[in-house]
Each structure stands twice: as structure tokens, then as C-alpha cells.
Amino acid sequence: MKKISCLILLAASLSTPAWAACNYPAAPAKLPDGATASRDEMVAGKKLVETYNNDMNAYLGCIKKEYDEAVAKQAATLTEEQKQQMAARYTAKNDAAVDELQGVASRFNEQLRAFKAKPAK
């Protein structure tokens, strides 16, 4: 029973709440449609994407800092497997965030190309 309690406590200490202080930014709800958007709408869309990019970079820095601090704080007590699990969780969070950021930027760039391709009025 004592071993199970220790394992539960250890699992709880290594779980996600270590990175709970970092706020995952919301992607822009809607990007302008380049085929129909005005120049002002495209500029506003660009600003949304830039803000999202800055917010996401702050989030990425935050999870990296928290990961580094968690590893340093627990370094003496973590097994190699536990360190690898923490690294895998950090990497998964980082990769998912970067993938989403790249997706938003890619969708905006598609709309920007459509905007630039439409005939001038």
C-alpha cells in the first residue's frame, strides 16, 4: 500500500500541472478571405496573425522555462525514464504549438496570395 501511495504521489508531481501557468493562446477566430477582402481587412488580419505569433512565442518560452525549472528542481530524484517522459511531454506541447502557429501563418499567406492575385479595382 505504501508503494502505491508513493507511485501516485510521484505521478501527480510529474503530471501536466507543472506547466499550468503558461496560457496557450487562441488562434485568430477568422482570417480575411483574400478573394473578397479589402486592403484594410488584410492589414487587420496581418496584425491578428502577428499578435498570435507573439503570444505563441511567449507561450513557447514559458513552457521551455517551466520545463527547465522542473527538471532542475527534481534532477536529483528523477530516473532517466522520468526525465525522458518529461522531455517527451515538453516536446509534444512545443511541437503541437509550433504546428498550429505554422498552420495559421500558412492559411493567412494563402489568403494574402489570393488578395494579391485579384485584379485591381
List keywords for this structure.
121 residues, mainly alpha, 72% helix, 0% strand, elongated
Description of the molecule:
This protein is an all-alpha fold and 121 residues long. It has one domain (2-117). The protein contains 3 helices and no strands. The chain has helices spanning 2-14, 39-74, 80-117.
Offer a quick outline of the entry:
The longest helix has 38 residues, at 80-117.
β-sheet strand percentage: under 5%
Order of helices and strands: HHH
Q: Tally of extended strands?
A: 0
What helical percentage do the residues reach? over 70%
What is the CA-atom radius of gyration, in angstroms?
21 Å
The total count of helices amounts to 3
Major beta sheet summary: none
Write the layout of secondary structure elements.
Elements: H1 2-14, H2 39-74, H3 80-117
